[in-house]
Structure formats: structure tokens, C-alpha cells
Design brief:
Distance between the termini: 46 Å
Largest sheet: none
CATH class of the domain at 167-367: Mainly Alpha
Radius of gyration: 28 Å
Order of helices and strands: HHHHHHHHHHHHHHHHHHHHHHHHHHH
Number of strands: 0
CATH topology of the domain at 167-367: Methane Monooxygenase Hydroxylase, Chain G, domain 1
Strand content: under 5%
Helix content: over 70%
Number of helices: 27
CATH architecture of the domain at 167-367: Up-down Bundle
Structural class: mainly alpha
């Protein structure tokens, strides 16, 4: 089933639709320009459209209205500056350096602006490689490139309108698929001899991917919230998040590790159950992709009933461990809650009235982050301590060095591919650059081989068809598997250069040499003003504590507004994602720069348990509200919330645990006792997390601030 899940990720998803839309857009621009101006000008226009299309990502129509014109401006400005400097090596080299610096600064606008940075550099490289004998020819190329980019914008917007609704269904399918992967990761906690820290690292990486796809789905679906089908999709997303809460809460009290000590295999049963749920979600995701209306979700209550009988049998045994029994009951209740929400998915997706009822009182537009385009964000990075500024400077120096090699080494005279390789490999951190280097080399070797075979065949219709297919694949897989994108991009660029300039375009072998040289330059310049993850990790950890602080403030309330809670949960998930991404980057840093690594797995495991305890309190209030006296419960929650928030604020001294009020008259002692115990555990886990933050991170921040 995991093979099918991986196939589902590669073969079905919104990225496929997005790649097809981009390819069709570039094709239409090429056909229109070729019909109007001829083949070579048409290819120049197509190259301009290709540059702008890099900014055409999975974003709502309203966001594309702002992003695509900005992409055209960046592309045209880079091409024009390069063309005006052509023929004068010093000026051209200066433009390469300054364009690289400007492209590096663009990422200050946020993750959505990374494609803007890439397309700016790609436009510069294409202009450097365009055949032009003088300024007039260079400006003619820029004119056609700008025309193609401008023409692509309305075409892309029109295609987005046409494909919007099917794209939204695909994004929901991707969320289900990613949640299935998350469940498989959580199942790892229940394996024999599981290392809680290592499994936590894996789970938080899977949650980062889940959160990323969830945000994309939110943005696309919420943008059409006034449509009936969008309401059903939003309701389904909300149900998945409720199931997510249930799964996270199973980690409270380190329950999986306690179940591992059970003599009757409770942990192994729960592992199998979570894997079954993951397979069920994959099947539902596939049904959504193929457009089936008869959506179903298997009934798994029999497996939970068997788990309950095993708990009862364990309880009947003399000397049964009460901690194991408590963990088993917690796990049964919380997994049952998650299952109940997942089982609602087919009904929510098929019945409009149920979806509207589920979303009553919620404004989902608040969950779609606004697109902020402001020059101030870039101006704020003009300081030596800014990682963005240092990355921009490092990128500019690497590109300048690559251009100097082209000018000074005779065998590299047509080596603008070196600059392209540097541009696509260099990232803001050492680990990300190293990963891109390996993936780029892998893709370039295979791509050069494929392109060599195609050029040897020499059929122009075949080359055009393959190039169009490569455009779609390169765009579709950039976030799924960059190795696939690198292969397709290499084929696309080599065939494009051949079609524009079949005489002067250097041979495939030369491109492979250029790739090796560019990869080497990019890697070496990683050590110029290096950005190690140990320098930024303490800030990421503090950011997570701040998000958990806000989450506790919203969740530990008797009458917490649902909207406020969901927004706080969204922010916490994003903070978890940042923590997981930081851990992944640090793992790839040189051993000498991983001094904080031993504390990372401990911190993430403690963070998960602390968050799980808070979720468990919220679920207990929701499920046993009628058994709790409101006034006493509210007082207990208020005291717990204040103490937890102080514990999670490193600027304040940690408080002593608060003594909860005794239950008032007429209160269900069992329900209040459970709430009081949960509140005590929230404080205990918050204080444990604080200790780790103080011991392993606050002091480490001083070490990380030292020069590399």
C-alpha cells in the first residue's frame, strides 16, 4: 500500500494540473508569437513566457493577479539590464553581480517570492545565451521576451479560472494523502524499541509537509468560499484537522511508550490500526482525484472494539499497571475521536447541508494568509546580521566568480550554463545548497544524456514536443522531487537553446562540464559568509515556544471561541513545521556545526507531548462538558493557563504549580478529577519543555552567535 501511496503522490495531485496549465500557457504564447513574427522570435517570446511561468504556482486567482505582473517586471528588468550591458565584459559582469544580489534580496518577501528570485536569474541567463551580434539584436530579443511574458499573464489567468474547481479537489486529495503519511509516521511511536526522539523528528517532518499542503488547500479553497462545492471542501478540511487533534492527543503522557510495556500487544495493535487508517485515506484521496461521486470510508469500529476488549482483559489481570491502563484508555478514546471525524468525510463532501452546518459561525477567510508585497520588507534586510542580506551577497559573489570563469577560461566561453547552475543550486543555508547540488548533478547527468539522444535524432517536431512536456514536468515536480525537475529542466533548456540557436549552441558534453563547474562554485561559496542552522535554530525554537504560548492561551479556556482556537492551532502547526525544517537542515550541516543537534530530538519530543497535553484538555472539556461544573472548571483552567503561559515565556521565572480549586457541590468528581490531573500534566510538560529550552537553547544561542 505504501508503494501505491508514493505513486499517488507522483502521479496525481494539483502539481500535475499546475504543470499542465503552465505548459499549455507557454505553448500558446509560442504558437501565437511564431505565427505573428516567425520561428526564432517565437522561441524568444516562449522563453520570456517560460521565465514568467516560474511564478505561476499553486496560488489563488487573486494572488496571481498580483504575482504574475510582478514576475513579468522582474524578468523583463533582468533581461533588459543584461542586454544593455552586452558586449562589455566589465559591465556585463557588474550586471550579473547586481542582479544576483537583487534576486537574493527578493526572498525577504516570503517563501512565495522564491520563484521570483529564480525567474529573475533565469531571465538574465537566457539573455546572456541568446544569439545577438549587437545591441539592436539584443534589444530585439528582450522585446520579444517581454512580449511573450506579458502575453503569458492573461493566458495563465484565464487557464487558472478554467481549472480552479478541479484544482481545489486535487488539493484536498493531497491533504488526505499527506495526513495518511503523517499517520504512518505516528505509527512509528508504537513500534517495539522505538526511539521517541528520532520518531518525533520524523513525525514533525511529515507534519511540515502536511501543513504545507494544508495551507495551499486553504488558500485555494477559501478563495471560492461562496461556492457550494468549496463549502463542502472546507468542511472536509476542518474534519481532517479535528482528526489531527485526536491523533496528536494520543501522544499525551508518552502513551505509546507506556503501551509498549503492555503484555498483550496493545502497541502493535494500535500501529496496525493507524496504518489501516492511512491506507483508507489514500483510497479516499484517489477517489477524489478520479472524480468519483460515490465516496466511502471503511467502518473500522470492529478493530477499536477489539482494542477495547484487550484493555478490559488487561484490567482484569492481577497487578495490572495503572499507567499502562490509563494510556490504553486515552489512546482508545482519542483514536476513536479521530476515526469519527474521518468517517464523516464522505458525507461532508456529498451533502451540502451537513457541510454548511459544520462550518456555521466560522470565517475561513481568516485562515488564508494575505499576500504582502512591500519594499519595506526588503529594506529591513539591509544589515550585516540579516541572513537574507548575507545570502544575497554570497549569491552575488558566486555569480560574479562564475562569470569571471566564463570570461577568463577559453574552454568556458559559452558557459552561461555555469551561471544557471549556480543560480538554481545556491540557497540561504549550507544544507539546502548541498541537497540541491546533489539533486542538480543527478538531474543534469541524466538530462544531458536524454537531450543528447534527442539532438542526435534531430527531428524538430519531436524536439518541440519533448520540450513542451519537459516544461510541464519541470514545473510540476519542483516541490515534489527536485531530481525529476532537474532532469526535465536540463532537457528543456538544452532543447530550447538548440531551437533558438542550432549552430552556436554548445554540445551536450559541454553542458555537463558546465554543470560540474557551476555546482563546485556554488558549493565553495557556501563557506563565504556561511549560514549554519545552529545560528538560526535557537530563534526557531523560541518562535515555537511563542506559538505554543498563544495556543495555550486560546485552548485552556472554558469558553474558547472556535475561530480563535483554530487560528492558534494553525499558527502552532506552522511553528512545528519550521521546527522540523530546521531539524532537517541541521542534520545536513557539517559535523563540526551540529553542536545543538543532540538537543533537537529531545526538544521536539517534549514539544509534541506538551502540545498533546493541551489538546487533551480541550478535548476533555468538549466531550465531558455536561459532567463539569462551569465555574470551578473555569477557575481551574484560568489558573492553569496563566501558569502555563509563564512557564512557556523564557523571559519570566517559572511558577510553582497552582493548586486547583476543589470541585463545587454537585460536580461529577470523576470528570473534574480527570480535568485537574490533565491540567497538572500540562504544567509539568510545559515546565519540562522550558527546562530543555533554557538548558539546550538559550545558552546555545550565545554560542551560535559567535563567528563561524
Amino acid at each position: 500500500m505504501r508503494v501505491r501511496s508514493r505513486l499517488l503522490k507522483y502521479m496525481f495531485g494539483h502539481h500535475i494540473l499546475n504543470g499542465l496549465v503552465v505548459a499549455v500557457g507557454v505553448l500558446l504564447v509560442g504558437l501565437i508569437a511564431t505565427a505573428a513574427f516567425g520561428f526564432l522570435p517565437g522561441m524568444a517570446a516562449a522563453s520570456g513566457a517560460l521565465c514568467v511561468s516560474i511564478g505561476d504556482t499553486s496560488t489563488p486567482f487573486a494572488a496571481k493577479l498580483r504575482i504574475l505582473p510582478l514576475a513579468w517586471i522582474c524578468s523583463t528588468a533582468a533581461a533588459l539590464a543584461t542586454a544593455l550591458a552586452g558586449g562589455a565584459p566589465l559591465m556585463e559582469g557588474a550586471v550579473v553581480v547586481l542582479t544576483g544580489f537583487a534576486a537574493g534580496l527578493l526572498i525577504a518577501l516570503g517563501r512565495w517570492a522564491i520563484p521570483l528570485s529564480v525567474l529573475t536569474l533565469l531571465s538574465m541567463v537566457f539573455t546572456l545565451g541568446a544569439p545577438a551580434a549587437d545591441l539592436v539584436e539584443r534589444l530585439h530579443y528582450v522585446t520579444m521576451s517581454a512580449f511573450g511574458g506579458a502575453l503569458y499573464v492573461p493566458i495563465a489567468l484565464a487557464l487558472t479560472r478554467v481549472s480552479d474547481m478541479s484544482g481545489r479537489r486535487l488539493t484536498l486529495a493531497e491533504v488526505l494523502r499527506e495526513f495518511a503519511s503523517f499517520l504512518r509516521g505516528v505509527a512509528g511511536f508504537y513500534r517495539k524499541d522505538a526511539d521517541e526522539g528520532e520518531v518525533s523528528l520524523k513525525v514533525v517532518e511529515l507534519q511540515a509537509s502536511f501543513s504545507d499542503h494544508l495551507q495551499t488547500a486553504r488558500s485555494l479553497i477559501v478563495s471560492a468560499a461562496d461556492r457550494a462545492e468549496a463549502t463542502r471542501l472546507i468542511a472536509a478540511l476542518a474534519a481532517v484537522l479535528e482528526a489531527f487533534d485526536g491523533i496528536v492527543s494520543t501522544l499525551a503522557d508518552h502513551a505509546p511508550l507506556r503501551l509498549a510495556d503492555s503484555p498483550n500487544g496493545l502497541a502493535a495493535q494500535m500501529e496496525r490500526f493507524l496504518l489501516q487508517l492511512a491506507d483508507d485515506l489514500d483510497a479516499l484521496a484517489l477517489d477524489l482525484v478520479v472524480g468519483g461521486d460515490n465516496l466511502t470510508f471503511p467502518d473500522r469500529t470492529a478493530a477499536l472494539d477489539f482494542f477495547s476488549r484487550q484493555i478490559a482483559a488487561l484490567e482484569a489481570e492481577p497487578g495490572a499497571d495503572p499507567e499502562v491502563l490509563r494510556a490504553a484508555r486515552l489512546t482508545r478514546a482519542r483514536v476513536g475521536l479521530a476515526l469519527s471525524h474521518l468517517a464523516r468525510l464522505p458525507c461532508l463532501l456529498n451533502r451540502q447541508e451537513l457541510a454548511e452546518q459544520a462550518m456555521a459561525g466560522l470565517d475561513m477567510r481568516a485562515f488564508a494568509p494575505p499576500l504582502r508585497v512591500t519594499a519595506q520588507a526588503i529594506v529591513d534586510q539591509w544589515r550585516w546580521s540579516s541572513p537574507v542580506f548575507r545570502h544575497a551577497l554570497r549569491l552575488a559573489l558566486a555569480l560574479g566568480f562564475g562569470y569571471a570563469l566564463i570570461e577568463l577560461v577559453p574552454g568556458l566561453k559559452h558557459g552561461n550554463w555555469i551561471i544557471l547552475t549556480i543560480a538554481v543550486i545556491m540557497r540561504a543555508s549550507y544544507s539546502a545548497t548541498r541537497q540541491r547540488r546533489d539533486e542538480r548533478l543527478f538531474g543534469s547527468i541524466l538530462g544531458c544524456g536524454l537531450a543528447g539522444v534527442l539532438l542526435w535524432i534531430g527531428s524538430s517536431p519531436l524536439l518541440l514536443g519533448v520540450q513542451l512536456f519537459a516544461v510541464a514536468v519541470a514545473h510540476a515536480y519542483v516541490r515534489v522531487d527536485y531530481r525529476v525537475t532537474s532532469i526535465a529542466a536540463t532537457v528543456m533548456a538544452l532543447l530550447g537553446l538548440h531551437l533558438i540557436d542550432p549552430v552556436q549552441a554548445p554540445p551536450v558534453a559541454a553542458r555537463l562540464i558546465d554543470t560540474l563547474v557551476g555546482a563546485g562554485v556554488a558549493f565553495l561559496f557556501n563557506f563565504v559568509l556561511p549560514q549554519w542552522e545552529s545560528q538560526t535554530a535557537p530563534g526557531v525554537a523560541k518562535g515555537f515556544l511563542s506559538a505554543l504560548h498563544r495556543y495555550a492561551d486560546r485552548a485552556l479556556r472554558w469558553d474558547a471561541p472556535e475561530q480563535d482556537y483554530r487560528l492558534a492551532r494553525k499558527n502552532l502547526m506552522e511553528a512545528f513545521s519550521a521546527l522540523g525544517e530546521s531539524a532537517g537542515r541541521m542534520r545536513a550541516d557539517p559535523a563540526a556545526r551540529r553542536d545543538l543537534w543532540p538537543g533537537y530530538s529531545k526538544l521536539i519530543a517534549a514539544a509534541y507531548v506538551a502540545a498533546a497535553q493541551i489538546v487533551t484538555v480541550r478535548l476533555l472539556i468538549r466531550n465531558r462538558r455536561d459532567d463539569l461544573e462551569p465555574l470551578a472548571s473555569q477557575r481551574l483552567l484560568d489558573e492553569t493557563r496563566r501558569a502555563a503561559m509563564v512557564a512557556l515565556d523564557l523571559a519570566l521565572p517559572a511558577p510553582a504549580p497552582c493548586a486547583p480549586d476543589e470541585p463545587g457541590e454537585g460536580v461529577d468528581e470523576t470528570a473534574f478529577a480527570a480535568l485537574r490531573q490533565r491540567c497538572d500534566e500540562v504544567l509539568r510538560e510545559a515546565q519540562a519543555l522550558r527546562r530543555l529550552a533554557e538548558e539546550d537553547w538559550a545558552l546555545a544561542e550565545q554560542r551560535a552567535a559567535q563567528p563561524a
